[in-house]
Model the fold of this input.
Amino acid sequence: MKGDKLYIFLFLTPAFAVTGIFLYYPFVENILQSFYKTDGFFNSTFVGLENYVRLLNDEIARGALFNSLELMLYVTIFQVGIALILAIMVNSITKGAGFFRTTFFFPIVISGAAIGLLFTLIYNYRNGLLNEMLVNLGFERVLWLTEQSSLYMVAIPTIWNYVGFYFVILLTAIQKIPNDFYEAAQLEGITGMQKMFKLTIPLIVSDLKTCIVLAITGTLKIFELVYIITKGGPANSSEVLGTYMYQKAFQDSAMGYGATLAVLIVVLGLTLAFVTNKLLQRDEVTY
Amino acid sequence: MKKFKWSLLLALLFVVIGLAACGDDETGSSTDDTENTSDNGDDTSAEETEQEEVNLRVVTTMAGTDPAGEVFQQVLDDFQEENPNIKIENDSQSADAGTIRTKVNTDFSSDNEPDLMFYFNTVDADGLIEEGKVVNLEEAEGVDLSGYNSMLEQQRREDGNIYAAPQSGFYEGLFINKKLFEEHGVELPTTWEQYEAAIEKFAETDIVPIAASTEDSYYVVEHYILAAGGMENYSAALADKNEAWAEGLNNIKKHADMGAFTPDAATIDLALAQELFKQEQAAMIFEGSWFWGQLEEAGMGEDVTVLPMPVYAEGGETGELVGGASQGWFISTKAYEDEAKKDAVVSLFNYLTSEETIIKIAEATGQPPAKGELSDLADYLKAGHDLVKNAPAVALPINDRIYPESFTHMRTSVPEIVSGDKQGEEVLEKAVEMAK
Done:
């Protein structure tokens, strides 16, 4: 037993050291910085809770928070929803499943920056793909990125980017369901829709739950697509917590306030993950 | 399978041992270096043919798309050829997106400062200077500051010292596609009235009058404030809440309503705005003298001319410019105080700030040099240099001298000013509040 403990200690130490140095230490340092007015380097003044008070009264931060939550809603519903539909469809076909699997998974391997640039060029007013098509068809140009539409416009590539990830998880889950279940149901005369709602979905609910938690917490990390496509604009209409934090910390050299925003993102992420886990908790299905 | 695992473990072990060995090697060599250094240093009487080797690290913004990058590397190579005992690591990084600021600040705060750097002598260098991280050049032994034009004096800080020696200056102005103006029969805008008339006329065509990003509105904000206030008000402190600043911001809305900008001005960035101008889809753009490089690459240098922003303010004068020399060569205190490096770093500094080198680099960028003059300039470049020469007053961009958050607030609020959601006055009020 004593020997076992030594091994446990030995094997866990590197992981502890790495996470400690690269995750927990910076996080603690980040919390400390949030109590300072600092550029993160040379100018540093202790301001107590001033940054947190500022956060409470900051309209842009509030807007960014609501935008992040709105984006979270779209992402969760559409990313996981579309992924589920695609997975069920691909599972039910016999020919060409490999092709679809590759096609749907493909966006995952493209970097966010490249997708951002792609959509910037698609939405561009004067020379963009969409408007060029409209002009060629004899229509007027449309301003795709406005204060009203910008959030939806960044939600589209965000959803498209990650659908493949959840699609693969759900497809694997569906393929793990033993065929006996379907055969038995077939004998009972189950229809296609019933098969989906009464059999497939209940049997992969724990995987769905994982996907939803991942989608929700992942949304808080959204940065590059928004930053490249709209930079949070116009007029902060598509600002999310990630882009606002970046602007404050790195562009405005207000590292202290940026750190405060980072604390908000972490607290929000943990709370949401906890709440989602609680809400979706139910008995695991085993087969 | 088991065999495979063992061989994998063995391979990993070798990698770890290899890495550890490499680490030792490095420490070993650096110890050797130090030993050699001290040996050589002590043994001054002996006429040694072998000079001690010195490694210097230089950080500049002459990298990426900067046309000076290649010439700068050549200059460093020439210096190393002349001084075989000095090895230089060129750790330059593009000035785009402000990442150079983070790099320099990180380097200095983690005791890994470059020995010599070409960096912004603006609000960005405040922390470095206050902490004594860079040398006061006028008091530094061996540093040669002779031969400079007025750009050197512009580097003097509030404490009366000079910490940065300029390489070249820059100017900002209204870049105009002469060809489009001629084709549409529009007068070149040398007065405010002509400027507004040009906006109106181009707005009636398919040509965008001004290529600009209202979110990345650095140059637009500066020039509209200059037009509304003249140099006296432009140079005012943020805390003064100068009325001309608010008026300038409100004028952007007035002109946006006249159709001055592309409808997606709030979401395009500077690069896309530049593309509009380069593809001849826009007639004017506010840019800096560095933009000539891109125009030449696009083969349209001859079609473009640069004019000063028409100033309508009482007491102001058209011809006043945003510009100066905001970057300079700094010597880090750490390198200067290191006896082993001091001579080498001063020698490299003097080499880089010699008239010959300054001209060589300025030739690549077309910028007005801080020493001497460029010869054989293309007419369009010469026109720009003449603007600087004849300018009644030149001042640095606003964002170089005010609190960064305040300026970001001003420029990112322009889309809201344009949409009518905010007024120049309230934006300015908030910017002042942020700087407190």
Notes: Strands of chain A lie at 36-38, 44-46. The first strand of chain A starts at residue 36 and ends at 38. Chain A has 13 helices and two strands. The radius of gyration of chain A is 23 Å.
